[in-house]
Write a structure and sequence with these properties.
The protein has 334 residues and is α/β, with parallel strands linked by helices. The protein is built from eight helices and eight strands; from the N terminus they run ααβββββαβββααααα.
Length: 334
């Protein structure tokens, strides 16, 4: 046998979960803690065959973790699910529906009179496409969408989200339900007994779950269950890391493509801006040069006119040249 360093079995394993909740003396206090706010008190439990056979040949056989009838008239399904499933909500509805359908199986004169069915689903992940709960326990019933009036008391689902339960110190626990959730989540890592294990139902719980209390056969079964649980956790972590790596690679590829597209767009924008600036500068320089040339041509034409007038007045060519800056040859051609 493997040397285990913890004091208690892990209730998150299949063996640990069924060892505890397969015990009526522990299941009843857990259920009463869950139903306490409703004032519901459960007095008796009868376990039912966990295998629900198909109605038709193509239907699926269902194996529940725990299926029981309380006080002789109400069905309760208890399921533990570790690995995230996108369709776990639908799976839970299917389980509930099959339990309801089973009530009429083989009854020729059945008139659809139902007894309540409760589903308790303990998850080690957040439900997909559901607002993250503020509390670890969420209840779902069928209601009128406008008035919130409960349509039926025959159908209720409890989801216990272990990830949402953040309390890590025994002193923080205020209710028996919190003590149950704390124990389910943490018992497998405890090396010493918590204070709650000294009295009442929690003394029974921790005594039942103590590794030293297991027979050799039970210990072997538990260790196989623990290996399966650890393998599942390893697969879950591997999948998580693989998705993270793929996300990182996709992000890096996206950044590279974005930078390349950005550079190309930047060059195009730069060329466009350069051409626009060049055209603007060219127009400005052209206007300036045109004004300068126009002024120069205007001055030259003015000088020519002055020279013509002086020549027409019979002035000496040398005098005209000295006062206009034109050469005598230029003046003679006027």
């Amino acid at each position: 046998m493997t040397a285990l360093t913890t004091k208690y079995i892990d209730l998150l394993t299949d063996y640990g979960f069924k060892r505890v909740f397969g015990n009526k003396e522990l299941l009843i206090p857990f259920l009463n803690a869950l139903f306490e706010e409703e004032g519901k008190v459960i007095k008796s439990v009868t376990y039912i065959n966990k295998e629900m056979t198909p109605v038709n040949r193509d239907d699926r056989t269902i194996f529940y973790d725990v299926l029981c009838k309380v006080d002789g008239q109400e069905d309760i399904i208890i399921e533990m699910q570790h690995k995230p499933q996108d369709t776990f909500r639908e799976r839970s509805l299917y389980y509930m529906s099959r339990a309801i359908d089973e009530q009429g199986a083989g009854k020729k004169k059945w008139k659809y009179k139902l007894h309540p069915v409760y589903g308790i689903f303990i998850t080690n992940f957040h439900l997909k496409d559901v607002q993250l709960p503020e509390e670890p326990v969420s209840q779902y019933v069928i209601k009128n969408a406008k008035t919130n009036e409960v349509f039926t008391d025959k159908f209720k689902m409890f989801f216990i989200d272990l990830l949402t339960f953040k309390k890590t110190d025994e002193d923080e626990l205020n209710t028996d339900l919190e003590k149950w959730i704390y124990s389910i989540k943490n018992m497998g890592n405890m090396t010493t007994a918590p204070r709650m294990a000294s009295t009442g139902v929690f003394h029974h719980l921790y005594s039942e779950a103590e590794l030293a209390a297991l027979s050799k056969r039970e210990r072997n079964i538990y260790e196989r269950s623990l290996r399966n649980y650890r393998d599942m956790l390893a697969d879950k972590e591997t999948t998580k890391n693989m998705l993270a790596r793929e996300k990182k690679v996709a992000r890096e590829e996206g950044l590279a493509e974005g930078r390349a597209e950005g550079r190309a767009e930047g060059r195009a924008e730069g060329r466009a801006e350069g051409r626009a600036e060049g055209r603007a500068e060219g127009r400005a320089e052209g206007r300036a040069e045109g004004r300068a040339e126009g002024r120069a041509e205007g001055r030259a034409e003015g000088v020519m006119n002055v020279a013509r007038n002086l020549k027409s007045a019979g002035m000496d060519l040398l005098f005209i040249s000295q006062n206009t800056g034109l050469t005598i040859e230029e003046i003679e051609k006027l």
